[in-house]
Design brief:
Layout: H1 8-21, H2 26-33, H3 37-50, H4 71-83, H5 89-99, H6 108-117, E1 146-151, E2 155-156, E3 162-170, E4 176-182, H7 187-201, E5 206-209, H8 225-233, E6 236-239, H9 249-262, H10 270-286, H11 298-301, E7 323-326, E8 332-335, E9 338-341, E10 350-357, E11 360-365, E12 368-374, E13 379-387
Parallel strand pairs: 1-5, 5-6
Antiparallel strand pairs: 1-3, 2-3, 3-4, 7-10, 8-9, 10-11, 11-12, 12-13
Helix pairs in contact: 1-2, 2-3, 4-5
């Protein structure tokens, strides 16, 4: 039965006072206070052990935790979390398993509880449902088959300088190959950065990017000067559809991680920001396990490309039956007694014209079909580029 009064502590003290001073039996005292003899004997035992302090409300929490991890295990978990504040339990356990293979580490739910108890994670709000990414525009079956290139959204560093991070990742291994703090999205700067990267790591087969400048344009094949140069060195540009960043979803997801670990808050200067990018790349490539790689790191999967950047300019070659023309400085070619404009981005390039139908010719830039020439009007209609052959896979 419950106490007659609402304050249980006061009632327990009254109970002991009555029992000790009035000479009542246990049965009489319990009847007077409306409690069971079991409760009465429990109060007497707590008073005998702890005195009046034993009559206060005791914590219901267990005094021992048989499933609690040893202190050294919790310390190891928290060390990894401190070094990588954005990592969750899955990545933490993968790293610990690699470091100490003989140690029996707790399950993920226990690691989550350890992190929460230590106050190093914040309760999640309502999770925003992420739209599923589109299927890859071109699939990567091995390292260096497809690289992705993009600018992460610009931001200001501490001294007010604009920072446009240029990133290039291998899509198969997720390896971060370029993470460069740029001050503006200029084509010449991007080309110089890619030249350094190609010399260091070799060439990919395809380069995936959006179609905005400096990566793409509204001209033939949506090719910019940068795209024309890529084709010339043996890399096929693949441009996602306008307004479809999900078609480059892996790069978008990489940018979320990059921002969380290097730009919240931004560093004080471009130099300091670049140093942060460099540290991030080392951690991302060599320490951070990736679920899509079976919890391996990108560095364990990626390898150098055997295809090297040509030392000198290589002219595009075409099969017999193509009419080959050099693009003039004004972006035009000579054709049928006149000039046909194809685009200034193609200046100096050899393009191939292949008869397609009466009065129509397909316009090629190396392995890409980029437009249709109408002989009567002497105009070129752009086409969505299509690959007629891949460099190194035979003639086109």
């Amino acid at each position: 039965m419950p106490w007659n009064e609402t304050d249980a502590v006061i009632e327990r003290r009254k109970f002991m006072t009555v029992l000790l001073t009035r000479g009542l039996t246990m049965v009489e005292a319990c009847r007077q206070f409306g409690i069971s003899r079991k409760t009465g004997y429990k109060i007497v035992a707590r008073h005998a052990e702890l005195g009046m302090a034993g009559l206060t409300d005791a914590s219901r929490a267990p005094r021992t935790h048989p499933n609690q991890s040893p202190p050294e295990v919790e310390a190891a978990i928290l060390r990894v979390r401190k070094a990588h504040p954005t990592w969750g339990s899955k990545k933490i356990l993968a790293v610990l398993d690699r470091q100490q293979v003989d140690q029996a580490w707790p399950v993920r739910s226990t690691v989550d509880a350890i992190l929460k108890r230590a106050g190093v994670v914040e309760p999640r709000g309502r999770r925003v449902r992420r739209q599923p990414s589109a299927p890859p525009v071109v699939d990567a079956a091995s390292p260096n088959e497809v690289w992705a290139m993009d600018y992460k959204g610009w931001f200001l560093v501490g001294d007010g300088t604009r920072c446009d991070p240029l990133t290039v990742n291998d899509q198969f291994s997720r390896a971060s190959l370029v993470c460069q703090a740029m001050v503006a999205p200029k084509s010449a700067d991007v080309r110089r950065c890619l030249e350094r990267t190609f010399r260091a790591y070799g060439l990919p087969r395809f380069m995936l990017s959006d179609g905005g400048p400096p990566f793409g344009s509204n001209g033939l094949g949506r090719l910019s000067r940068l795209g024309v140069w890529l084709v010339g060195v043996g890399v096929i540009p693949i441009l996602i559809e306008p307004g479809r960043p999900d078609q480059n979803g892996r790069q978008e997801r990489f940018h979320e991680t990059l921002k969380a670990e290097t730009a919240k808050p931004p560093r004080v200067s471009i130099r300091a920001q670049q140093a942060a990018f460099g540290r991030f790349q080392v951690s991302y490539n060599q320490e951070r396990p990736h679920e899509a790689l079976g919890m391996k790191t990108p560095a364990e999967v990626w390898q150098l490309s055997p295809r090297q950047l040509p030392a000198t300019r290589v002219e595009h070659g075409y099969r017999d039956g193509f009419d080959v023309r050099r693009v003039r400085a004004d972006g035009s070619i000579k054709w049928s007694g006149g000039h046909v404009f194809v685009g200034e981005a193609f200046t100096g390039e050899l393009i191939g014209l292949e008869a397609a139908d009466e009065g129509l010719w397909h316009v090629h830039l190396g392995p890409l079909r980029v437009g249709v020439l109408h002989g009567r009007s002497k105009t070129v209609v752009p086409l969505v580029p299509s690959v007629t052959h891949v460099p190194g896979h035979g003639a086109g």
